[in-house]
Structure formats: C-alpha cells, structure tokens
Amino acid sequence: MNLLVLLTIAAVLVVIQVGVTRWVNLNRLAWMAIWWAALWAAFSYGITPPLPQSIVVLFMAIITIALLAYLSADSEELAQARQTLVSFMVEKRYQVALIVVILTLPLLVALSVFSSLNQAPQPPASGRTIHPVPPASISFEGNTINLSTANNPYRELEHSDPEAFAAHVDNGRRVYFENCFYCHGDNMEGAGQFAHGYDPLPANFNDATTIAMLQESYLFWRIAKGAPGLPPESTPWSSAMPAWENFLTEEEIWDVILFLYEFTGFEPRAQGMPH
Amino acid sequence: MILRMLRLRTLVTGCLAIAALLFAADPAWGVPQVAEQEYRALPFISSRVLMWAVAELHLMFAAFVLAVPMFALVIEFIGYKTGDKRYDQLAYEFTKLLSVSFSFTATLGALLTFGLIVFYPTLAQYLVRIFSWTFLPYVLLFFLEAVFLYTYYYGWGKFSPRVHLFLGVMLNIVGTAIMFIANAWLTFMNTPAGVDELGNLTNLWEAINNYTWMPINIHRLIANVAFGGAIGAAYGAFKFLGAKTPEERAHYDWMGYVGIFVAICALLPLPFAGYWLGVEIYAYDQSLGITLMGGTFSWLFIIQAVLIGNLFLAANYYLWLSMGRIPGAERFRRFIKYLLAVITLCFIVWATPHSLVATVEEARAMGGSHHPILNVLGVMSAKNTAVNLLILTTYVSFLLYRRANKEATVSWAKTGNLVQFGIFAAVVIFVVFLGVYGYFVDAQTRIGLSQPQVLSVLFAMVSVTVIDIFLFRNAQSRGRVAWGKIPARSQYALFFLAITFTWLMGLMGYVRAGMRQHWHVYGVVRDTSVDAFTPTLGFAGMVVSAIVVVFFLLIAVVFFLSSLSGQKNWEPGQSKRWFKRRSETAATPLTQ
Fold first, then answer.
1. pTM, whole model, 2 decimals?
2. Optimal mutation site among B187, B290, B374, interface A, most CBs of chain A within 10 A
C-alpha cells in the first residue's frame, strides 16, 4: 500500500465534501465523477507493487457499473443528471466550456495513443496457468505412479513412528538445502540467490496459494518432472524448475515434500475427502 | 373420448418402441454388431458444436419446464389458502408458458438422442449398455409428465382446488424424478463409478449414485428455480412494456416482481450448492478439480464471477427501483449508498482472479505471478466471505423493501430492531473473522470453515425474518403498493437478469462438460474424434452466446404463443385495419 497516495486521495475527498460543497451544490453526477476518479487513482497509484493493468480495468468496470446503478436507482436524481447534461450541451453560457470539452476528448485519446507508442516494446501480457492439470499418471524410474491415488508413503509415520518420520523430514531438509534453496530461498519465500534471474519466479511456498492448497502427489509430479513436464498453457519453455527425476530418488522426493510442509507449517490437501 | 384414448395408445406404443430400441442397441441383448463406426461428421458445422448447442438448448428448456410448476404450485397454493383469486390467476399465467416449452423440450431431447446415436454411435452404445435399465422408468415418467402437465394446465379451474393441487404435486415429483435419472447419465460421464477398469458395469446403483450425482441434482434443482423465475419475470416485463391499461401494467409489474422474487430466493443458496459440487469434483479426482479451478477453465470462473456479481447488483437495483412504488420507502433511500458500497466491494473481491494476466514488467514488479495484496483476495477464504456478504446485503435490500410502507406498532419495536441489528452485526463479524482465520489454517480446515459461514448467514436470515414477521404484526400502513408505478428501466433490469442467468447456465454447462477434456466418460471412454481438444475460451464464449441468442428467439416464440390466448378473436376486415393503423403511425412525424 502506498499510504501517502491513499491519504492524499482521502484528504481531497474530505476537502470536497466539507469545503467545496459549501460554495457549489454538487449533484449526483458530479459526485459520481469524483468517486470514479478517486478510486481510479487509488487503484492505479495507491497500491505497491502496482496492480496489473488488466486488474485495474476489471475493477474500474465494476465500479462504473455500480456508479451507474446508483445514479439511476433514483428517478429524481437521474432526471436531474440528465437535465444537467442537456443544459450543458444546449445553454449559451456553457458554450465555451462545451467547446473545451469537445476539443479535449480527442486530445486525450491522441495523448494516450502517443504515450503508449512511445514506450519500449513489451511482450504481451500473459495468462500463464500456474497450477495446470497434472497427468493421470507419470512414470518414474520405470514405475508408473497414478497421481490421483498416490500418497506420500512416509506421511503415515507421523503418527505411527514419529522418530522414523523425523528422519525422513531431516533427509528432506538435506535435499532441500543441497538442491532447492538456490532458487526457492532460505525461508522458502521464492527469493533464493538465483531467483532474480528467472521469469516466472520460483514458487513461494509460504504463500497460501501454492503448496498449501495442493495434494502431495501434485508436488511429486511438479518436482519429478519440473518445467519440461508442464503442459503448454503453463509455458514449460519459460520456467526454470528442473526435472528432479534425473537427480533424486523417489524416496528423496517424498522426503523433501515432507520437509516443505514441515517447514512452512502447512498441511497438504487430502485426497478424496468429502463425499 | 375414443380419439383421446387412441392418442394415448399411440403415445404409449411410441414410448415402448423407443425403449425397445434403446435396449436393442445393447450388444448384450444379442443383436449382431454392424461394422463399428466411432464418429460421423457433418459438412458445415462440427458435430460437436451441433450437439453442444442441442444439448444446452434442451437443458435450458427442460430447466424451465421443471422449474415453473414448482413455483406455480406454490403460488396456486397461496391463492388457495388466502382465497385471493389474483394468485390463482398468476399461477395460471406462469403455467401458460409451459405447454409450448414442454414440446420444445421434448423435441430438443429427441434431437439430442438422435444426434448422439448418429454422430457418436460408440459412446451412445456404451452409455446405453451401462444405463439400459434406467431408460424404462425414464420413458414411463416422461409419459406421466406429459399426462400431469397437460391435465394441470388444461384442467385449470376444472377440478376441485385440492385435486388440482394434487396434480401439481405429482407433476413436480415426476419432473424431479426425470431430472434425477438424466442427471445420473451425465454425472456418470464426469465422475464414473460402478464400472471396472475396462468400463464394464459392475454395479448400476454405484454408477447412478456417483460422486457428483447428488450435488448436481441439488444444484440443478435450485438453479432451475432461479432460472425459471427469471424467465417468468422476463415474461412479466415483456407484457408490462407492452401493456395498454394501468390494470395491465399493475398486473404484469406484480408478475415480474414475483418471478424475480422466486429467482432471488433460489439464487441465494446457489453458490453454496455450487461450492459443494466443486468440492466433490475435487475429491473425485484432483486433475478434474484443478482443470476446473486452476487451469484454463479458471478463466471461465472469472467470467462467472463477474456475471454473478452483476446478477446480485441487478437484483438489488431492481429492489431499489421497486421501492419507488411503495409509499414510505423514501425513508430508506439513504441506505442504498451503503448497500451499494458493500456490494461493490464484495463484487470486486469475488471477481479478483487467482492467476493474473500481467506483462513481464508488471510481474517483476509484483515479485512473481501473484500480487501480494490481490493474492489475499484471490483465494477461497476471501471469495466465500464476499459471497456470504453479498447474500446478506441482498437480503437487507429485500428487508427494507418489505418494510417500506410499514410502521411497527408493537411495544417492543425498538428492542426488536436492535436485536435484528445485533444479529446482523454479529454474523457479519463472525463471517469476516472466519474468512480471515481461513488464511492461517490448512486447506482441510479452511474448506470446513465455509460451513459455519453459510450456517451463520442462514441463521441471520431466518431469525431476522421471524422477528420481522412479529415486529410488523398489525403494522400501521403508510399506503398501498402502487403496482405498475415503476420506471421502465426496472423491466430492462429483469431482462438483464434473465439473459445473465441463461448465459451463466450456458457457460457453466460448458465448463461441466468441458472439464472432461479428451474423455467422453472420464478415464473410461476416450474421445478419439477430431474434436478431442478444448476449444479456445473465445470460441467457447461465442458458441455459448449463440446458444443464448437462439434460446431467446425460441422463448420469444413461447411468449408470443402464450399471449395469443388473451388476444381478441380475429374478425373479417381486421387485417386491413391493422395495416391502416401501421401506416398512420409511420406517417406521424416525430415530434419529441
């Protein structure tokens, strides 16, 4: 959040509410315009890191619809707003202002075209699918693993044999710090020393939208098959995630998965739970 | 009489013949197999798109035909209990829409069946093999549906009210049973059960009662009512806009209101039913769940979220405009702002996507594909909270509408209001708290949290309604509702609602079928046709839109035919007069 910007916007609103309304009577149309501009400024400049353009457009569309609904929910207000617009367009005393508006509108369009063409070329926005569908099964060192039924074989040790479980977690810790932390980081926040060079960035496991909402077999697939195993909608060509089946054993992968959950404190999503 | 018997007989024989055909298609019954043909193609349009359109249109009409009797019956019952003839009249008016729609449903259903057999013979054969035993009750029920529907419609006012109500009940039971059977077939295609690895049937009941059968049954039951109510409301709006007299306007204003009231009531629990369905799909197979919510299809859920947000907004908007016809509603105008603010906020949260569309630069600035703040809004905890608050807000709008012309006279009015407010405040705090709490627990617990959220919202709605009923007992009235005194744009809001419901149904229908991807029956019968790919979102959107347009063209026919019965009889010379009137209006200069 950019508090300074947000506070400024709020201050301007307050000034208009208490100050300006004392001199001029703002009708609902004017208020709508003010709110629209204030929210647009808040979404565009009030949040750090900035929201993607696609989101600002989505939010502003919703707000526009809501404001229009508000304007027309009251017949009197609507009639008044219409009257304001009509008198602005036909009355003599607004002629100069009208001409100014008519000239500025195309100018604004021209300006935005100019500025958009004046930027360094950018690759188009991409809607990369972060969690694609895993295949039904994968082969690992000659064995077939059915992903919809596979479970972490060492998970049950957690209750039946805590010591053995701890050993597996420890092994997972070793695997992680030997292989993964360069990218996924010391604290699994996705900011290892290599991370800045990659796009997409390494996954942040502390985030509630990564491992916390996935099943362990899903992680097994992602770790074993890495970027090359991704389907096209997840742009396998741009992810740096290695395919660990070439370097780790099946047990090591299950162990590192245990460690990921242990370290972050999340529970994996369970299989086939409700019915 | 004899004629009618004959007709019945043909119908029965026809049905039995179809049933026999369906059974005969089963290889186990010993019919020699002709050279197998997996698929057949069409020259100009892909057979998949054709079947898609036919199935969806069939579904829309079926939904309508199943839903209208439900609330027609309730309205008729209210009329019977209160002795108010207007209700009976209204129920009849809704029922009038049924007979043409029923024929459309049946025609489209037959088309769908033939299409399946012609274009997808192998799949059709497989489904017949699994479900042959369910066809007999299906056909019989369909026959009964026809009998009950037409006696209910043509017998209006011809039986004692109780007999007629009984017919309505039977009509509903039979209709629901039909839907349940058909749902077994299609849910089996998504989440098959009761078959072995090779796809041979091992247990018919398991195949029927598969993972998504009950969730789909419930979801469809509720959604049908919402859809039917919205289409009924659109009919009211259509008649309202064309009404000539104040009485007509008043009547159709009321009809539109009742229709949309039904639709909103059904809309409120719908997100929960959908949520349950989603959870079951996820539980059946995580690939299906991820295809649905995380993969390509997740974009369709963004569209869905936007549409549902619009539905809620439009429903509230209609209620606010409706308050214009009630004396005393001015008192509540000032609340609209705040309600709108909450709705907008929830709408924004509800529509925030989980995966963002961002340029590389934007992604870098965000430090990854997830925005640290939006991320918070993109997950289930936030969405559930938002939708629960949307529902509560809509309920408050309705509460204000209900109270508009009432002045409580009971001695405890103040306390009552305070208690109601307290319940709202407590539930809102509770719901928001659970939403926030959801970020700090694992997925399992989080899914569990949605239940107390829903229950508390339900609790608030029920308890506040109960208090409200007692609170406004013997209330002083500020004046009667001036039906018909409502701006035309409210009626367009009704059209908007009907179209949005339909579009949403088309879209979600596509998602439900499309998430199987290259499977006809998920994991059992593979789609090996040329169409075994997931169409682009744009293409799917176009097809769904085209289907919606066709549906409304057909519905226009239904509306037209239904309103014929109220028209004056044709007289000689009438057509000439009509033309004359036409040319006169055309010649009138536009003065306004």
1. 0.80
2. B290
**pLDDT at site B219:** 95
Chain A's closest residue to B365, CA to CA, is: A49
Angle at B172 between CA B167 and CA B174, to 5 degrees: 95
Q: Which of A168-182, B264-278, B330-344 has the highest mean pLDDT?
A: A168-182
ipTM for the complex? Answer: 0.80
One domain, residues A161 and A233:
yes
Domain end call among A117, A149, A170: A117
- Of the pLDDT bands very low, low, confident and very high (cuts 50, 70, 90), residue A180 is very high
Q: Which residues 10-39 of A have a C-beta within 8 angstroms of B?
A: none
Shortest alpha-carbon distance between residue A141 and chain B (Å): 22
Q: How many Å lie between the alpha carbon of A129 and the closest alpha carbon of chain B? A: 6
Query: Residues of A with CB below 8 A from B522's CB?
Result: none
CA dihedral B266, B272, B276, B281 (to 10 degrees): 80
In angstroms, how far apart are the furthest CA atoms of chain A?
89
Chain A hits for B319, Cβ within 8 Å: none
Q: How far is CA B103 from CA A101, B62, B68, B107, in A?
A: 57, 10, 15, 6
For chain B, what are the domain ranges? 45-309+502-527+534-564, 327-355+371-480
**Structurally, how many domains does chain A consist of?**
2
Q: Which of A123, A132, A270 sits opposite B444 (nearest CB)?
A: A270
CA B270 to chain CA mean position, Å = 9
Does residue A175 form part of some domain? yes
Instruction: Say yes or no: A55 and A150 in one domain.
Output: no
Q: Are B509 and B460 in contact (CB under 8 A)?
A: no
Residue type, B88: D
Reported confidence tier of residue B443, pLDDT bands at 50, 70, 90: low
Give me the mean pLDDT over the B491-509 stretch: 95
- B482/A contact by beta carbon, under 8 A: no
What is the distance between the alpha carbons of residues B234 and B97, in angstroms, rounded to a whole number?
Answer: 12
pLDDT of residue A65: 95
Chain A: closest CA distance from residue B332 (Å): 12
- Whether residues A55 and B356 touch (CB distance < 8 A) is answered with yes
- Tell me how close the Cα of B160 comes to any Cα of chain A, in angstroms: 45
Residue with the bigger pLDDT between B517 and A8: it is A8
- Of A69, A123, A132, nearest to B313 by CB-CB distance is A69
Contact B295 A233 (CB under 8 A): yes
A94 lies in the same domain as A62: yes
Residue A272 pLDDT exceeds 70: no
Picking from A66, A73, A133, the nearest residue to B344 by CB comes out as A66
Q: What is the DSSP string of B483-506?
A: TT-S-HHHHHHHHHHHHHHHHHHH
Give per-residue pLDDT as tens, A197-216: 887 888 889 877 788 888 89
Is residue A122 a part of any domain in this protein? Answer: no
The range of the structural domain enclosing residue A150 comes to: 137-264
